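Recap from last week: sequence in, structure out.
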Amino acid sequence: MLTKEYINELKIKGNGALLKAISEFTDSGTLASLLEKLGYLPKDFDGNLLIPLLNHESHQIRLGAVKNIGKLEDIKYIQILSKIARQDTDSMVRREAVSSIGRMRHPQNKSILIEMLNDLDPKIVLQAIRGLLVFKNDKVVENSLKQLYKHPNEMVQTVIRKEFFTQSTNKTGQPHTKTYEFLKNVVVNGDVRDVLKIVPDESIHLTFTSPPYYNARDYSIYQSYQEYLQFLDKVFREVYRVTKEGRFFVLNTSPIIIPRVSRQHSSKRYPIPFDIHAFLVNMGWEFIDDIIWLKPETSVKNRNAGFLQHRKPLGYKSNPVTEYLMVYRKKTEKLIDWNIRQYDWEVVKKSKVMEEYETSNVWKIDPTFNKVHTAVFPLELCNRVIKFYSFKGDLVFDPFAGSGTLGKAARKLERLFFLTEQDEKYFELIRNDLSNKTIFSDKEPKFFTLEQFKKII
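Predicted C-alpha cells:
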C-alpha cells in the first residue's frame, strides 16, 4: 500500500530508490497513485527518472510525470514540456505541460506560450494566458494577449477584458453603497417602462420581482407570447441600466398553462423562465444560480385527475409545484469581494446571515394567498432574497410590486425599497399596508403618481 510514510522513505533514500520503485510498479493504477502522492520533491531529484513515463499509454501516468517535472521548474526540461504541450493526445496532460512552462516564469518561455494562444482547445489557451500575464508589461506579450479580445471562447474573452479593457460602469460618480433620496421608500403608480426612463443609472442595489404571467391572469393580457417577451425585454434592459455594477437581479417565474378553448383543442404551456433567459444574457446579465421554489402539492391545481382515472400512456400531466428563482448579476470585471469592500465593516458585520439557512437550491416555502391580489410573494421568499443578495441600507426594487411584499420585507430587514405598480387597485393596497405607522421608525414611505414622481425627480 502506498502510504505517506513509504513515499517519504523513498524520497529520503534518493533517486535510486525512486527509480527502482517506478520500474517495479507494473500496475498502472499503483504507478499513477505514486506519482500523484510524491508531493514536495527533494532538491537533488532527477527529473530524468520521469521522462520515459511521458510516453506511457496511460494518460494518468503521463499527467503525473508532467506534474512532477513541472514542480522542478527547471528550464532544461522546457523542450520536453513544449513537445508534450503540442503533441500529447490528452487535453489534461497538455494543459499541465503548458501550466508547468508558465510556472517557470522564464523569459525564454514567452514565445512557446504565445504559440499556444493559437491552440483550438480554450483550456490550453487559458493556461497560456495565465503564464503570459507574468510578462504582461512586455509589449510583444501585451499585443499578443490583446488580440484575444474577440476570441470565440467567452472565458478567454472575460480574462482578456478584465486584464486590458476594464471599464467601470459607474459614470454617475455616486458611491457604490449609496442611492438617491428621491428613490428611498418610494412607491410609484405607473407603467414601469415610463417610470424607469427617468430613474438615473446605477441607482439600485437589488431587484427581485415576479413579472405578470402571460395571459394566465386577468391583470396581464398580451396579443402574443412574443409581444409578452418583448415587453419583459424592454423592462429588464432598463433594470440593467439602473442596477449598480456587479449587483444582483433575481427573477421569479415559472412555465404557465393557457387553458384550452374547448375539448376539441389542446391547452398550451409556455416555458417563460427558459425563453426569457436568452434575452437576459443578451442584454448583459450574467447567470449565477437557479433556485427552485417548492410548494406543497395541495396548494396547486390538480392536473392529474384524468390520468388517475384512465392511466393511459401519453396522457400523464404532472402537478406543477415549483417555480424558478433565476439569479443574475450585472456584468462586471470586478469580483464579488470588490462589491463587499465598498461597505464599512460595521455594515458588513450587521448584514451577515447568522441564522440557519437553506444550503441547497430547493426552497420549501408555502405560497401566500390574498383576496385582492391573485399572485402574492410569500414574505419568507422576499426575506431570503434580500438577506442573501443585499446589505443593510441598500435599495431594493420591484418593478411589478403587486401587493408590495418586497417593501414590507425590506423595511423589516433595514433596507430601503423602491416599488412600481401600474394597477391602481394594487397601488392602493400597497399604500394601505405600508402606511402603517407602527412599521416604520424612519424614512416614511411616499406614494406618487407618475406625474408627481417626474416632478420629484
